[in-house]
Task: inverse folding
């Protein structure tokens, strides 16, 4: 392998690692706050890329319908739970908060889609459509199960994955898309051509990771979220609502997923079911971090990105096998290094 | 009776299908194969509280091993069956050994990875035929007859399935099975009675993988063609959906779920693409929504509804009267437990500091102290649940500090739990039988084949004897969860007694008991002492202890404050100071 190939593979590895790292961070946050192993997170990656592609074609994306359906289901469940706890007077406010934003977004998308706005606005519209799905899915599928075991929540997460993949096929068909790059600029450093899109991916992930670090370390709400992830009951006792924390962590998961999809859309063809594998690779990173440590998870995402990129050169057919088999030595290492503990459920 | 009628109806239905058209026979064969996998998954998920998304991959392992070896090397399918099972056991053992020590969610994550890897391998390795798969696999031969007939194969599949159902049911109704059923609530209870939670979990995972492998082997020789698509992660997930919808707490739920999902899938695959005028697996949308709904509103699945209509299971009566072998209690007054300078520190926090005390055979010693004095930590240090920082504990002639709670249980130390740990789905007598785990040595094979009847009846008789001793004979066959807290504490004592201990450790046995219940408890403990048993009680309630125990050890701030006869303690100024804040 010559230096040129090495550099190209490394560039590829960095791009993938950045996306896996973002996804791994979101997975860890969601798991810490809600105990949900959110395997369906990858679907937001597909939804992001495919929704953007629809908007670029001037077609109303099918995900808007999903957003509206989810909002109606969440509203119905909220009505039932408020009425049965005899808090009926909170109803108008709660319903407004659940229903108004999705319908406003749907109207906005309806108006803006045919206008062929500049790319930045299209990305914003995409985010507006996909991001609210996270909290709504949390409300509909996971909040009623909040006191269940990790196992039950995992089964529910897999069920949500099935629903979202099936709907992805329904909305967008089996055809893959590749969205146009954010910029056509190229940067040439020492004979290495770095595409503008890769630079976008690096810059966005770095900025996002820095923002998350700031949020979790410096802001009051970020610290509260970390408190919930550290000890749910303790956080509840000091007045931090676990539901609010759950809603927020899911919002972050869908936002990060959608943004990842938008970022890698120009680099690889995205199909309705591509997101799942991408999300699972983020998972391998998260598992390296023991589902708890953010820096270790980012390091794990790097390992995944690099082994994927370099194995695609040497053993292209076995690329995915290698990435997923990687989990076995990682788990062995964790199992040997961690002390045995009792899980009470 | 009604249950038996149901079983006869079910077998009649199976036979009726075997006489119907080929379409229904094929469908029935698939349902049988999926049921076989789902039965293993019920044991893993519903009973043990673990789960796997890799069951389809184990099925693929069975199918592909046989396919490759029979086509490439012309081995007989019966030989390949052993190779396939051996491979499955090795892989399941490795996956289990790596993940089961950690949190419960690592096994499903590892099996997702394993499922995906194997699926890609099936599709890429040239010798496995890539995505085209392997065709012309040998038919099974039995006594020189080729089993190509679909009807016959259908009967074989269901025969295997019903045998697996029987074996699994037998397994759960055994010494190891009762311990397996107790794993869901955490392993420390079964470990206190000598079972290894890790080993049992691994056995269950391997067993479920073996059933899946067997289903795959049957599949390969039924279809006589394999390709990767039926063994992907999605199929692995669908198995989990089957038991969720059918009911993951009963093997019949597995069969119900396999039937419902398979039939529904066929119907939906016919309707949905036409409805949407687009081709694709849209049934997964319906399945996903169904699962979330079932999890939210009917956790027990369909079978839980059926179970409600059936009469309760009748328990086997207690028959055997021949006693299990018992330990000889050491002579009264001989030193039994000796705690020497034991210290436990959690980082900078010292929970127990330099504690020393002794207990002689035939004595009841009370360990008391205000909240946070370190009593429970002291208790857990003796029972081996918490490792010590310094010091030593001797029990009889052995040093037990540094041993695991399982090994300590083997030496004759038996305990109860402050927060009652009975298994809600089991009858009272079954709960008590867990205590006798170490008194027989039947393994899973003799359990599955029902060769353990004699020794299991002995355990049952022993459990009944202990329940009689604590005065709960009439509740023997009631679910343990239906008893009041006071009675549940008594069941805990009966379970500990069932282990035939030399020393009984009781962790706050009187907490939450009413006055009369406390009196009964005190009477029981006096009786036990007269029978030669030694008891160490950690307790809050001074009054309860005063008229019962021989000696009292008082702890405060992790250290020994006083030790002596009850009346000495009652008038000890330091104790009064600690308890009443000075008089």
Result:
């Amino acid at each position: 392998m010559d230096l040129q190939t090495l550099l190209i593979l490394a560039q590829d590895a960095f791009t993938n690692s950045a996306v896996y790292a973002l996804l791994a961070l979101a997975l860890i946050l969601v798991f810490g706050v809600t105990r949900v192993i959110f395997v369906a997170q990858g679907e937001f990656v597909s939804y992001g890329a495919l929704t953007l592609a629809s908007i670029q074609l001037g077609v109303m994306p099918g995900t808007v319908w999903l957003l509206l359906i989810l909002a109606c289901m969440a509203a119905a469940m909220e009505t039932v739970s408020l009425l049965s706890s005899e808090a009926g007077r909170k109803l108008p406010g709660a319903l407004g908060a659940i229903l108004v934003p999705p319908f406003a977004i749907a109207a906005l998308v309806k108006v803006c889609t045919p206008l062929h706005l500049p790319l930045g606005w299209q990305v914003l519209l995409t985010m507006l459509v996909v991001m609210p799905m996270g909290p709504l899915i949390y409300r509909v599928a996971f909040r009623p199960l909040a006191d269940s075991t990790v196992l039950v929540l995992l089964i529910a997460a897999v069920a949500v994955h099935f629903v979202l993949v099936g709907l992805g096929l329904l909305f967008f068909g089996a055809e893959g898309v590749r969205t146009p790059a954010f910029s056509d600029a190229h940067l040439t450093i020492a004979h290495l051509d770095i595409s503008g899109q890769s630079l976008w991916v690096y810059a966005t992930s770095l900025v996002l990771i820095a923002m998350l670090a700031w949020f979790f370390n410096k802001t009051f709400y970020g610290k509260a979220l970390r408190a919930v992830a550290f000890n749910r009951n303790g956080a509840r006792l000091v007045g931090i609502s676990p539901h609010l924390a759950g809603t927020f962590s899911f919002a972050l998961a869908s936002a990060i997923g959608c943004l990842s999809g938008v970022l890698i859309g120009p680099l690889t063809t995205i199909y309705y079911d591509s997101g799942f594998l991408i999300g699972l690779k983020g998972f391998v990173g998260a598992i390296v971090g023991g589902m708890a440590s953010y820096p270790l998870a980012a390091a794990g995402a790097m390992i995944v990105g690099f082994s994927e990129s370099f194995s695609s050169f040497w053993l292209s057919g076995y690329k995915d096998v290698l990435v997923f088999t990687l989990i076995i030595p990682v788990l062995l290492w964790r199992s040997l290094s961690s002390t045995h503990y009792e899980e009470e459920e | 009776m009604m249950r038996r009628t149901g079983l006869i109806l079910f077998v009649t239905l199976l036979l009726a299908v075997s006489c119907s058209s080929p379409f229904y026979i094929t469908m029935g064969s698939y349902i049988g194969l999926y049921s076989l996998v789902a039965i293993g998954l019920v044991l893993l998920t519903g009973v043990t509280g673990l789960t796997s998304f890799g069951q389809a991959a184990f099925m693929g392992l069975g199918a592909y091993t046989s396919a490759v070896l029979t086509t490439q090397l012309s081995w007989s399918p019966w030989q390949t069956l052993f190779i396939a099972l051996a491979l499955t056991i090795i892989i399941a053992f490795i996956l289990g050994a790596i993940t089961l020590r950690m949190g419960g969610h690592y096994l499903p994550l590892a099996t997702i990875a394993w499922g995906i890897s194997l699926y890609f391998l099936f599709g890429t390795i040239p010798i496995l035929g890539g995505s085209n798969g392997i065709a012309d696999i040998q038919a099974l031969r039995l006594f020189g007859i080729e089993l190509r007939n679909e009807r016959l194969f259908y009967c074989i599949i269901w025969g295997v399935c019903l045998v697996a159902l029987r074996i699994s049911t037998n397994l759960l109704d055994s010494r190891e099975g009762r311990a397996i059923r107790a794993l869901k609530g955490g392993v420390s209870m079964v470990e206190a009675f000598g079972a290894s939670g890790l080993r049992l979990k691994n056995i269950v995972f391997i067993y479920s993988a073996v059933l899946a492998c067997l289903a795959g082997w049957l599949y390969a020789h039924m279809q006589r063609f394999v390709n990767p698509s039926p063994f992907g992660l999605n199929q692995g997930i669908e198995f989990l959906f089957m038991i969720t919808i059918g009911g993951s707490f009963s093997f019949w739920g597995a069969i119900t779920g396999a039937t419902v999902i398979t039939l529904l899938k066929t119907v939906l695959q016919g309707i949905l693409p036409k409805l949407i005028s687009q081709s694709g697996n849209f049934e997964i949308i319906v399945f996903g929504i169904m699962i979330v709904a079932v999890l939210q509103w009917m956790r027990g699945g369909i079978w839980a509804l059926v179970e409600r209509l059936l009469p309760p299971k009748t328990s086997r009566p207690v028959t055997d009267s021949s006693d299990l072998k018992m330990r000889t209690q050491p002579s009264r007054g001989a030193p039994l437990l000796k705690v020497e300078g034991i210290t436990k520190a959690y980082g900078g926090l010292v929970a127990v500091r330099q504690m020393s005390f002794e207990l002689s055979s035939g004595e009841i010693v009370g360990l008391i102290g205000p909240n946070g004095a370190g009593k429970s930590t002291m208790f857990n240090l003796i029972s081996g649940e918490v490792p010590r920082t310094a010091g030593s504990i001797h029990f009889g002639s052995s040093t037990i500090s540094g041993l695991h709670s399982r090994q300590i249980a083997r030496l004759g130390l038996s305990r109860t739990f402050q927060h009652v740990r009975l298994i809600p789905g089991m009858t009272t007598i079954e709960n008590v039988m867990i205590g006798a785990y170490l008194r027989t040595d039947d393994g899973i094979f003799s359990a599955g084949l029902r060769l353990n009847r004699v020794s299991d009846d002995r355990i049952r008789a022993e459990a009944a004897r202990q329940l009689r001793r604590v005065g709960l004979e009439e509740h023997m066959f009631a679910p343990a969860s239906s008893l009041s807290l006071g009675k549940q504490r008594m069941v805990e004592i009966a379970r500990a007694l069932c282990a035939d201990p030399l020393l009984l450790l009781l962790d706050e046995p009187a907490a939450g008991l009413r006055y009369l219940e406390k009196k009964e408890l005190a009477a029981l403990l006096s009786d036990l002492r007269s029978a030669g048993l030694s008891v160490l009680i950690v307790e809050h309630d001074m009054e309860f202890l005063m008229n019962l125990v021989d000696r009292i050890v008082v702890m405060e701030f992790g250290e020994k404050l006083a030790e002596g006869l009850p009346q000495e303690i009652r008038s000890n100024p330091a104790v009064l100071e600690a308890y009443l804040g000075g008089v």
User: Anything to note?
Assistant: Chain B is about 55% helix and 10% strand. Chain B touches chain A through 53 residues (CB under 8 Å). Residues 197-223 of chain B form the longest helix (27 residues). Residues 26-231 of chain B form one domain.
